[in-house]
């Protein structure tokens, strides 16, 4: 698989993915979007991958869509609005959906700025860590006269509540990594120097953990919340019944009884 804008490798059941346009603060052009989509497909098709670590090269995670290029506005038969809608429908949204639908846990290490669409991309992670110097920004409205996309209007109210979600997107104020952690937007804010080490340690924990259980947890949390407790209890019954027949559960029971650390194989 030839990738021009993403670094991708698999080591010890962990897929390492790095946005690699550091000279552009990893701004999302169409090539980067399609490379990310291809990587997600490769991860989904590889049973050896049990966790993913996503980060950005250079001094920032991603500054958002690359508006310095004309990639999104090539067709003279379309208005700018129609071109944006076409780009979202054809390229950006399928990429975000592919990453959100990955069955294995995704750890995101946010280094530096995560703005606009770059912030949306960071929030596809199941565990999001950010260095102290990192910052999150939603500049669509105050800078461009647009609204957030790539899923931010889905994530933000669920993670931080409607009041903070509206304030963040309407005002466009910078949110520090420390405040993002306090608000519950991300898992943790850590020292810049240890960001990658801590993110990798979590990814490795996932890669040696009960993969089937992680998959069911993601499925239950990522779907639309049940309307009633009874509906949610029914979903839990289905998932637990399936997990009860896995080899990892059998190993977990044996390890518990023997008072030792379980050795999960992911099946």
Topology of helices and strands:
Layout: E1 6-11, E2 14-19, H1 30-45, E3 51-56, H2 80-100, E4 106-110, E5 113-115, H3 117-122, E6 127-131, E7 135-137, H4 140-144, H5 152-160, H6 162-171, E8 175-176, H7 177-183, E9 188-190, H8 195-207, H9 211-222, H10 229-243, H11 247-258
Parallel strand pairs: 2-3, 3-4, 4-6, 5-7, 6-9
Antiparallel strand pairs: 1-2, 7-8
Textual characterization of the structure:
There is one protein chain. The chain has helices at residues 30-45, 80-100, 117-122, 140-144, 152-160, 162-171, 177-183, 195-207, 211-222, 229-243, 247-258, and strands at residues 6-11, 14-19, 51-56, 106-110, 113-115, 127-131, 135-137, 175-176, 188-190. It has 267 residues and is of the alpha/beta class. It has 2 domains: 6-207, Alpha-Beta Complex (2-enoyl-CoA Hydratase, Chain A, domain 1); 211-258, Lyase 2-enoyl-coa Hydratase, Chain  A, domain 2. It is globular and about 65 Å long. The model has no long low-confidence stretch (mean pLDDT 91).
